[in-house]
Each structure stands twice: as C-alpha cells, then as structure tokens.
Design brief:
Two copies of one chain form a homodimer. Chain A is of the alpha+beta class. Chain A is 36% helix and 17% strand.
Amino acid sequence: MDFEELIKRRRAIRDYLPKEVPLSIIHDILDDTRFAPSARNGQPCKFVIVRDKTWISRLSKESKASLLKKIKENPTSPLATYASILSDDGFNVFYNAPCLILICVPKDLASGDYDSALAAAYLMFSAANRGLGTCWIGLGSHLENPDTLKDLGIPSDHRIAAPIILGYPKEIPPASDRHDPIILNILDSR
Amino acid sequence: MDFEELIKRRRAIRDYLPKEVPLSIIHDILDDTRFAPSARNGQPCKFVIVRDKTWISRLSKESKASLLKKIKENPTSPLATYASILSDDGFNVFYNAPCLILICVPKDLASGDYDSALAAAYLMFSAANRGLGTCWIGLGSHLENPDTLKDLGIPSDHRIAAPIILGYPKEIPPASDRHDPIILNILDSR
C-alpha cells in the first residue's frame, strides 16, 4: 500500500471481527518491525504474543485492578478520568481483540520509550498494510503482578512499554480530524 | 512508495547533498506527521524548523558543550563513549545537514516520549517517501541554555524530545542487518 494511503488507513481500531490472526502473519509483521530505528542501533525490543482469550481477559482484569489501586493512591493522577470505566466489569481493557502483542524493553534503558514507540509505529503500519487493525493500549502497560509478568515470559529486568492489540477490523473509519501542525519557529538564512 | 519498499529506504542518513529542502516540502511532511497516533489523541507535538547553517552550527557547539559537561559530572554515563568525538572541533552533531526539525513536547506530559517518537516515525517515513533522508540525533536533545531555547521559540514548559536532521541523501545505503525478532513467549489457546 502506498504510504500516503497507509497513513490514512492506520487508525486506532477497537472493534474486531471474531477472526484469528494467523501466527505466520504476526511473524511477518515482527519481521517488518525489525527495521525500526533504535538508539545506537540497539534493537532492544522483545515481544510477547498473546492469542488466548482467557489470557487476554486475565490481563485486562489485572490491569484494571492495578490501575484502580494507583488511582486510589493518587486521586489527582490523569488516570483518575478512567476510574468509572475501569470499575465496569464488562469493560475489557484490550477490547476483546483476538491478539495482543506486548513490546518489552529493558527497564534500565534510557531510550526504552523512544525505541519501543518507533517499533510500535512500524508494527502498526505493517499491520495496516496487511488489512489488520491495531490500537496501542496505554492502560495495558500497568501490569504489576510479578507472577503474571513471569508467566508472560517477561524477564524481571524488562518492562511492558507498548501493548498493541491486533485483529481484523469490523470497519476502518475515515482518517480522524487533526489540528494543523504547530510550528513554533522557522529559523531561515534568508 | 509501497510500505515494504519504504521500510528499506528509510535509513539513518548522515551524509547530505548541499541542497536546500524547500519549505513547502517540509510543510507537506509535517502535514503527514499530524496523522501519528498520540496518547488520548492529545496531538502534543510542536515543531521548530531550522534551515540556517549558522544556527545549526551554534546548536551543535552548544550540544557538545552541554554533553561534555554531563560526562564530566557523571563519567560512568553511557554518554561517556562519545567524549572523544564530542571534543573534536570538526564534528558537527547534526552532520552539517541542511535542515533540522526539533520535535518538542510539554515537559510534564507523561506520554511525551512515546508521542514524539510516533510523530518522528511518521516524519521520517514521509521524508523517505519524498526521496529525503533523515536521522534522529539523540545527542541533539541535550541543549540546556535557556536563552538558546528561548531564541529557538521553545516555551519554557516544553522540551526537545526528538531532533531530526533532514536533507537530500548523497546515497541511500542498503537496509542494514537486523537480528531476528526476539519473541519471549507465544500464549496460544491451542
């Protein structure tokens, strides 16, 4: 797909067809994701692929519990705006997507946020290029239970940076409105 | 350009033709960059466009001074590996590129690293799609002089997250080697 088309087709998708994403396609997407730049070409990202509904449901429940605990401890946190929906038993943080990919990076890596976001951009474009939808679930990076993280296969010196849901979209809405670029200054020699 | 081709053509470019990038093209690239996802669709990125060689040279000198100061204060910092090249008067942090775009975000925005990196990915793809080269200059985000930041037009409550150089590449090297994706775990229902 042409890039100009792709930036319009890559949308945050939260409503998926009940159709599994073949593992071979996930491998192809991760192959594309390798080409993301990273600080000093460190290529630090590691991936957990979750294709099991029971697991995704467990991770949603634990994310909600962890987030509600954080909100209780710090009621002025920006997370507090989510308190109501997080208390809703019917709300799945991962929107019942058929697949969840957790992009993990070393906890002590200064460039971890940047490196994981660049990998996430490649992953989301590669998925959109194959007709798949994705959504970065910020609320999904608050998992804290060491047993859960261990069961997921995440080493104790790594963290979940970017949880991305993946699946076949029920629909791809048109590109959303964006404000004009905010240009603070143009420093020109002329 | 097809996305599969684009991920191979988007390379870190540090050697540029002495050819100015038209401002109209920069505006087109920033228009594409608007479509980057951001946490809660906050669209927080703001841009400084530097097309003046004297300015870029000043920012390089100040970045080097600031970095050498940090290394002196903390000799075990990972930055210390750059001490030798940063002391070289002939080294320009921004590789004498004809253009530098500074992506800035609010200092107090928790998702600032992620949001700016996603915008940077869009910017770098959009540039590559137009035959331009880019390179994210991590060393360029260490500018500290408040007067310089003010002269750049960056509000005191914002920071430089992603400094990206931009120009016409002398050559586009073939895609660099990457290691295979590191998959920590596949949690499957089958």
